[in-house]
Amino acid sequence: MDSRAYFSNPNFNSISSGQIEEKIRLIQEERLSPQLRYCYDRSSFYRRKFDEAGVKPEDIRTLEDLRALPVFMNKEVERENAMESLEKNNHPFGTHLCAPADEIYLTGTTSGTTGIPTFTYTFTRNDMDWIGKALGHRFAYTGVKKGDRILFIFSLGIYATTMTLWGIRGLGALPIDLDARAGSELILRIADLAKPTYMATTPSLAEYLVEKAPSTIGKEVKNLKLKGLLLTGEIGVNVPEVKKRLEETYGCRAYDYWAPAGHSIAITCDSNVYYGMHGLSPDLCTSFDDLIDPDTKRPVPVEDGAIGEMVITSLKREAAPLIKYAYGDIAQVYTKPCPNCGFPGKRIKIIGRSDDMLVVKGVNIYPSAIKQVVSSFVPKVTGEMRIVLDQPPPRVIPPLKLKLEYGAETRELDLSGLADEINRALHDQCKIRPQIEWVQPGSLEKSTRKTPVFEKNYEKK
Ligand SMILES: [Zn+2]
Predict the structure, then answer these.
(1) Can you give the pLDDT at residue 347?
(2) Domains plus CATH for the chain?
(3) pTM of the entire predicted model
(4) 3-state secondary structure 60-107
């Protein structure tokens, strides 16, 4: 099989792109009804949701029928389900768990940076065999193959990313999994010793290692001679300056990938320009991905360039299927073939979180959009920033307060002119004129986990 094939099933590669969409739709619709019936029969939560919507699983025959249903679950509902199942069934997997608890083969939580962690990444053995295949195929698209060693640095254990190890092993590549909490010194020493060919981590940790490498292992990260950086967990690689900086410092391609709870499995292609994460192995149909308006929660037409909150529906899941689950990522979807590699399927660019969204004078602002503008001023700034909030989001009383690190070579007397320039760019591209506060380079703390985007003054009071 061609390792760079778009599909897991090689038979799909001979089909024209117009037919592919139709064929995938048919497979999705074929899997939809049995999945919904399975959830209805096995979960008190899903039974209640269908009953509230006044429909039976058999009424939902097409993807359009599914789109017309209301959102069943978000993070908050998922937490309530977990509280209920803890009380009634003595497990944290939620009342949407559809398999017996003793059939669970792997479980992982999200980071829990915003509340109690939920065990969204909960799978049976069958689930993992299935998802592992698609996860592996995704990395094969970047050239990962048997014989590669992947230094895999995240918060490990019961965390979401642990799932990915199944995909790497399935490819015949060797994951060298190291907990990010081990600290940069140990990470860099292992990187120097194990001679990995790829490194999988978060964009912010990859950047942090650039700084620490010379003093820790006596060499630049470029000398690790990696073939690729596989990055996830944060917005980063889709900011052109961040991608360029990482690729220059490491001397290899920086790929952006994701698979929320094992759905929407996607990765970017080998290109200098960011063309979005390509939905790999769509023929495996692990999910149906939809978009809704983050305010009204109504479906948004999924056409080239559309922006909305992602809603996923599992299509062949045993342990904890997610039906009409709006988990908070705001994405832009592209449906035209990729200008770089010709990939014919859907491509996705994550532009923010619905809970990160700010509303300034009635305009929806995503921190990633601000970061993108700020990063275009590197090296006059370092690119590090914090949005200072005096009251809980999303409403912000203008002006929005922005803390920026000036660049190491920038003179203090130039700062006021630079602030004006950045403000003009932010007004052109984001329709805001923030109040900029300059801080010294290196003064905003970087995290080995997710670097915070907000400084929440209202929590300090
Ligand atoms: Zn491409």
Answers:
(1) 92
(2) 1-353 (3.40.50.12780), 358-460 (3.30.300.30)
(3) 0.84
(4) CCCHHHHHHCCCCECHHHHHHHHHHHHHHHCCCCCCCCCCCHHHEEEE
